[in-house]
Amino acid sequence: MTPLNANRQKKRGLTASLLIMPATAFVVLSLLLPMAILFRYSLNAFVPGKFMVDALTADNYIKFFTDPYYASVLFRTIRVASICTIFCLIIGFPLAYVLARTQSRFKNLLIIAVVLPLFVGNAVRAAGWMVSLGNKGAFNQSMIALGFIDAPIEIMYTELAVLLGIIAVNLPFMVLTLQSVIESIPRHVEEAAFSLGAPPLKMFLLVLWPLSIPGILAGTILTFILAMNAYATPVLLGGPKFQMMGTLIYGQFAQQNNWPFGGAISFILMTTTLFLTLIAQTFVANKK
């Protein structure tokens, strides 16, 4: 590399660094700094009547992992997030493929139809599911009218209701992520596989799926993180007895005023989410 090219590359690197400095400073001040303060709170002691006492103790973390109730909430959150992610992938991939490959003049309208639910808050969508899944809701009343059931099915305030609500919330993110990646895959690659005699399933497994791995990885990570941190949907569709990590954290901060324990639960949730995400990313990368 000539000295002139080296100087140009150095200037470009400096320019890029200057461009990302505002965003980096914003993230540090608005996210990392509060998280560091919260972590410090999680090491404090909670004394009823005194709110929070300065200390350096791991009692809050020990309390979480030694109490079967809190461990069950963590495992329930992981289970719900995993199931939602898998179903979002199964349902979202065909829809994303149709959006990516369609030549219809209504393609933009189809994409808008996918994006449109994102304009409605999670609480409003959960309220819609409450109307649909209740004992006197649209689903049960339709099944009774058609003669399929004699009495309403108890769906509200169950894990099934929470799963349906979270899948509905996260599905657009999966579809849009996959659609952008599938669009970048040349169509002639699929046509070449068919011309060589590959049936649709074999083409999907050996051609389309491997080339879609970046979108699959991004979509699953996004939906998994959103499901792990869900709050409004579990509260409204699961009821007070159905606890996930998001509702548990809210209860410690807003209802119990136990900020040290709430901070500890927050960091356990964040660490678990990052750990499982890294495992999934490593597994998918090794399968490429």
Explain this structure to me?
There is one protein chain. With 288 residues, the chain is an all-alpha fold. The chain has a domain of 160 residues: Orthogonal Bundle (MetI-like fold). The protein is flat.
Protein topology:
Elements: H1 3-42, H2 59-66, H3 68-101, H4 107-115, H5 122-133, H6 138-146, H7 159-183, H8 187-195, H9 200-211, H10 213-228, H11 232-238, H12 245-255, H13 259-286
Brief rundown of the structure:
Helix 7 runs antiparallel to helix 11 (232-238) and helix 8 (187-195) packs antiparallel against helix 9 (200-211). The two termini are 34 Å apart.
List keywords for this structure.
single chain; 288 residues; mainly alpha; MetI-like fold; 13 helices; flat
The percentage helix is over 70%
**Rg:** 24 Å
Mean pLDDT rating: 88
Q: Superfamily at the CATH H level of the domain at 83-242?
A: MetI-like
Beginning-to-end CA distance, first to last residue: 34 Å
Order of helices and strands: HHHHHHHHHHHHH
> What is the CATH topology assignment of the domain at 83-242?
MetI-like fold
Unreliable parts: none
- Shape verdict: flat
**Strand proportion:** under 5%
Q: SS-based structural class? A: mainly alpha
Number of helices: 13
According to DSSP, the number of beta strands is 0
CATH class of the domain at 83-242: Mainly Alpha
Largest sheet: none
CATH architecture of the domain at 83-242: Orthogonal Bundle
